[in-house]
Write a structure and sequence with these properties.
The structure is a single chain. By secondary structure, the protein is of the alpha+beta class. The chain has one domain (38-145): Winged helix-like DNA-binding domain superfamily/Winged helix DNA-binding domain (Arc Repressor Mutant, subunit A, Orthogonal Bundle), CATH 1.10.10. It is 38% helix and 27% strand. The protein has helices at residues 52-61, 75-85, 89-101, 125-145, and strands at 3-13, 20-31, 38-39, 70-72, 105-109, 112-115, 120-121. Strands 4-6-5 form a 3-stranded antiparallel sheet, covered by helices on one side. A two-stranded antiparallel sheet has the order 1-2. Helix 1 (52-61) crosses helix 2. The chain is elongated, with a radius of gyration of 23 Å.
């Protein structure tokens, strides 16, 4: 993903003679905007132990995920999720906490969550690996403090 430059050529042809009478060329920059989340195949087993509510909230949350694999669980998010999966906003908050405990999400700050980059990711592979390293270092630091 990133920026690409495309060369576009337009030929204006005389329909009676078939001769190209004018040629226009220009360059265009386009940003790839693939909108998908990558699931790591080795980690798919983690999805099989989820309850239906957890599964629905996790997959429904993907529509809110930014390119840095985070999303904000604000009132709008909870209202949309409530209508999608027929749960109350407080139940959705409880389910998000459960997904954090099960290691599928990280709580970044109040109301802000990040996909576990070992399991799933949206963004570049380089950024995914930086986040994997960060969370491994955090886990080691916490273990050393105990």
């Amino acid at each position: 993903m990133g920026r690409s430059t495309y060369k576009t050529t337009k030929h204006i042809v005389d329909t009676t003679t078939g001769e190209v009478v004018q040629t226009e060329q220009w360059y265009r920059k386009a940003t790839d905007s693939d909108n998908f989340v990558k699931f790591m195949i080795e980690q798919m087993y983690r999805l099989f132990v989820l309850t239906k509510g957890e599964y629905d909230v996790l997959l429904g949350s993907i529509r809110f995920v930014d390119f840095d694999s985070t999303f904000h669980a604000d009132a709008h998010y909870k209202w949309v999720m409530s209508s999608l999966i027929n749960k109350t906003p407080s139940t959705i908050s409880t389910i998000l906490s459960s997904l954090v405990k099960k290691g599928l999400l990280y709580r970044v700050s109040r109301g802000r969550y990040e996909l576990n980059p070992v399991v799933m990711w949206k963004g570049t592979e380089v950024n995914r690996m930086k986040r994997v390293s960060y969370y491994r270092d955090e886990a080691l630091r916490k273990n050393n403090e105990e």
